[in-house]
Write a structure and sequence with these properties.
By secondary structure, this protein is of the alpha+beta class. It has 16 helices and 13 strands. The longest helix is centred in the last third of the chain and has 27 residues, at about 410-435.
């Protein structure tokens, strides 16, 4: 395994994929006879721990270089180093997040294997035991990630660091950058008539009355009618979340509920109108169901939005108003309107996009446009809002395919440089931690080609 990828593999240990036949026949033969194979500090690693991880990882598929009976115990040992540090630093796990991860993983397993009975048969454990082990694995993974983040959080490459990094890159190591584009956008959501809004609220009130009177099950209504298609599959259930994970309007009402089963008043958010049913509260977390309904725009409303955007585009082209001002005045896109309409790439924080990373409607529109050109109004699907909106775009800059350079790709090179610095920081920490920690490896496990030579002293 390449050194630059090893820490990443450790970071993702809880979801690592390991498969394939191994070269160590002796270890395979003895793996089912339980016993201590490693000791890290005061923590033992058993043969059964290695075998359990091997079985789980094989189920998930994938491959890794080398002998799995060498790589797996080394990853477990590294995990124990980080978890020990988490205890020293008093780092805690977000139990709500862990529970959501467990539920998602169990849902994935059940979809793949078909039933709880088959899952229990495959792992030779009950569902409760499988879930308990998952909780521990995700909790350990969270602690590892938090420790690693704390070790590298203050690393910030200076322009001098980036220049040195770039100058020592081999020509073959300089990445080729696909064509990119920088654009501004103004979006409009169709104006919804008040009659449609009132009809939506009336329907939600009817749902709430039916549930509160005991005539109908909330989860059934959510499955049938909620416009939140993802939670609708689960009867509207969100799973345990903290207040910060929810939009404020929704969170304030959800966390004010005190009686499980009762349905809230109607809540309006940027996504539409909701009713909420409390399931359970645990300290600072809540589990609830919701039904989301969105009022629908009429065909006339949609045509009016297109005409309004075309009028705004004409005013920008004629110089009556700058694009930046028009974005602040009219755009419904909260992520870009205060930035003069400039779209920001969530992957790297820059304003440059590869065409494949743009919404498909925008990518098609800007591909043949010239720099400075402003499009006509066009419809596009909003992933965030899960319905159609309307947009105009302006091309700010186009960058053709090229090898990365300091002028056009500073942010990319900064990320690469900081990635290398963080990698070295973690590597050095691990080596020092191994040297100062008591390590015992059973004799038949010492012949492995471990990534860190410091294990075998």
């Amino acid at each position: 395994m390449k050194r630059g990828l090893f820490i990443l593999a450790v970071l993702l240990f809880g979801a690592a994929n390991v498969a394939g036949e191994t070269d160590s026949l002796k270890l395979r033969e003895t793996s089912l006879i339980d016993g201590v194979v490693w000791v890290v500090g005061d923590e033992a690693i058993l043969r059964s721990d290695v075998e359990q991880e091997r079985v789980r990882a094989r189920y998930e598929g994938g491959k890794t270089a080398g002998d799995e009976y060498c790589s797996i115990p080394e990853q477990i040992a590294l995990q124990k180093l980080f978890i020990h540090q988490a205890k020293i630093d008093s780092i805690e796990v977000n139990n709500g997040q862990v529970e959501m991860q467990v539920n998602a993983q169990m849902a994935f397993y059940l979809r793949e294997i078909g039933s709880k009975e088959k899952l229990e048969e495959y792992f030779s454990k009950s569902i409760a035991e499988i879930k308990d082990e998952m909780k521990q694995a995700f909790a350990d993974q969270s602690l590892m990630q938090q420790v690693q983040q704390s070790l590298v959080e203050n690393i910030n490459a200076t322009p001098s660091d980036i220049k040195k990094y770039y100058n020592r890159l081999n020509e073959d190591s300089i990445p080729m950058i696909p064509a990119q584009v920088e654009i501004q956008v103004i979006t409009l959501e169709p104006m919804i008539p008040q009659s449609a809004i009132e009809a939506t609220k009336d329907r939600l009130r009817e749902f709430a009355d039916r549930v509160n009177s005991g005539k109908t099950d909330f989860s059934m209504l959510a499955r049938l009618y909620s416009d939140d298609t993802e939670t609708a599959k689960r009867g509207g259930e969100l799973g345990f979340v903290g207040k910060g994970a929810l939009v404020p309007e929704f969170a304030n009402v959800a966390f004010s509920l005190t009686e499980p089963g009762k349905v809230s008043r109607i809540v309006e958010t940027e996504f539409g109108f909701h009713i909420i049913q409390l399931i359970e509260k645990r300290d600072d977390r809540i589990n609830c169901r919701h039904i989301l309904l969105r009022p629908r725009a009429t065909a006339e409303d949609k045509v009016a939005s297109l005409r309004q955007l075309d009028s705004i585009a004409s005013d920008i082209r004629s110089g009556k108003v700058p694009f930046e001002v028009a974005a602040q005045m009219f755009s419904s896109d909260k992520d870009s309107k205060l930035n003069g309409g400039l779209m920001v790439n969530p992957q790297d924080g820059s304003s440059k996009f590869e065409y494949q990373n743009l919404p498909s409607e925008i990518a098609k529109k800007v591909y043949d446009m010239k720099v400075g050109e402003i499009s006509d109004a066009f419809p596009m699907f909003s992933e965030k809002l899960n319905h159609e909106i309307y947009a105009i775009v302006r091309v700010v800059e186009k960058i053709p395919n090229h090898k990365a350079n300091a002028k056009d790709d500073f942010q990319l090179l900064k990320n690469m440089c900081e990635g290398e610095m963080k990698q070295k920081q973690l590597e050095d920490w691990i080596k020092n931690k191994i040297r100062e920690t008591y390590i015992y490896i059973s004799p038949e496990w010492r012949d492995c080609e471990y990534h860190y030579k410091e294990w075998v002293k």
